[in-house]
């Protein structure tokens, strides 16, 4: 697959990501990124930045190949991420930043106990504009002998992911109201027009139990009616949460110091 076809495939998969915070949203996002670096393990993280914008509190993680040993190790590493070595400005976070993985996470090699390509990329962008912004992190754990993802294509994917995630994962509280696997199954059937009674039969549950799950779906997604619930789940509600400008994220080269990075008006490779 050529780079251009890989990017097109990635964009298609990103547009298919759920418009609700399903339990496997991060796994789906990581799988969508995989074509950008087929020989890498792709990982995806949703986290909150602390006010100093260096410390992270992880909400959820996902990897592109959840059953493979390399991806399992990657997920363990992602779950332990606690900080980055510089404090990006709010403008940088809103726009997004693509940089060498080892620049964003200097201890990566020590934590994973394996060498990676020096030009392997990671990406970060905020999807809320608060004192403790919700951010997405994309990581490609690329073996030293393999080709890393294209920086421009990674930036393009990050911009689209930020847009999708801002609508799907936005929450007015300090944490995301993630849907359980059961709630996700019920929501899928509601979208198909199935009644509570039919869903109860399909899932071998009582109508009362299914009704309770539907109530939880309304609460978690902020819906006041069945129609609004389905509209939100399909991404057709009047969502205005996205804070990402209509620009490519800033691309940082291996020669630049992250501490010296300043917001700029157009994407560039240093």
Kindly describe this structure:
- The chain is α+β, with helices and mostly antiparallel strands.
- The protein has 2 domains: 3-170 and 241-260, Beta-Lactamase, CATH 3.30.450; 181-233, Winged helix-like DNA-binding domain superfamily/Winged helix DNA-binding domain (Arc Repressor Mutant, subunit A), CATH 1.10.10.
- The chain is built from 11 helices and 6 strands.
- The protein has helices at 3-15, 25-33, 69-79, 90-95, 101-104, 108-112, 151-169, 181-191, 196-203, 207-221, 226-233; strands spanning 41-49, 56-63, 97-100, 121-126, 134-141, 250-251.
- It has a 6-stranded mixed β-sheet with strand order 2-1-5-4-3-6, sandwiched between helices.
- β4 and β5 form a beta hairpin.
- The longest helix has 19 residues, at 151-169.
- The protein is globular.
Concise overview:
The chain is α+β, with helices and mostly antiparallel strands.
Top keywords for this entry?
2 domains; Beta-Lactamase; 11 helices; 270 residues; disordered C terminus; six-stranded mixed beta sheet; Arc Repressor Mutant, subunit A; alpha+beta
């Amino acid at each position: 697959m050529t780079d251009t076809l890989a990017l097109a495939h990635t964009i298609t998969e990103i547009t298919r990501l759920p418009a609700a915070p399903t339990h496997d949203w991060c796994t789906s996002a990581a799988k969508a990124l995989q074509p950008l670096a087929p020989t890498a393990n792709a990982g995806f993280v949703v986290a909150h930045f602390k006010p100093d914008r260096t410390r992270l509190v992880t909400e959820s993680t996902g990897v592109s190949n959840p059953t493979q040993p390399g991806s399992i190790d990657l997920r363990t590493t992602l779950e332990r991420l606690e900080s980055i070595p510089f404090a990006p400005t709010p403008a940088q976070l809103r726009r997004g930043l693509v940089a060498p993985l080892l620049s964003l996470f200097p201890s990566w090699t020590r934590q994973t106990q394996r060498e990676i390509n020096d030009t392997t990329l990671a990406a970060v962008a905020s999807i809320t504009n608060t004192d403790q912004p919700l951010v997405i992190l994309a990581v490609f754990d690329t073996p030293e002998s393999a080709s890393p993802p294209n920086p421009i294509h990674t930036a393009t994917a990050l911009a689209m992911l930020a847009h999708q995630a801002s609508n799907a994962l936005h929450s007015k509280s300090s944490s995301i109201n993630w849907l359980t696997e059961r709630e996700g199954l019920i929501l899928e059937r509601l979208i198909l027009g199935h009644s509570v009674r039919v869903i109860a039969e399909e899932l071998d549950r009582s109508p009362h139990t299914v009704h309770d799950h539907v109530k939880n779906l309304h609460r978690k997604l902020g819906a006041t009616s069945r129609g609004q619930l389905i509209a939100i789940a399909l991404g057709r509600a009047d969502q205005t949460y996205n804070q990402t400008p209509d620009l490519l994220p800033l691309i940082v080269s291996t020669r630049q110091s992250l501490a010296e990075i300043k917001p700029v008006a157009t994407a560039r490779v240093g």
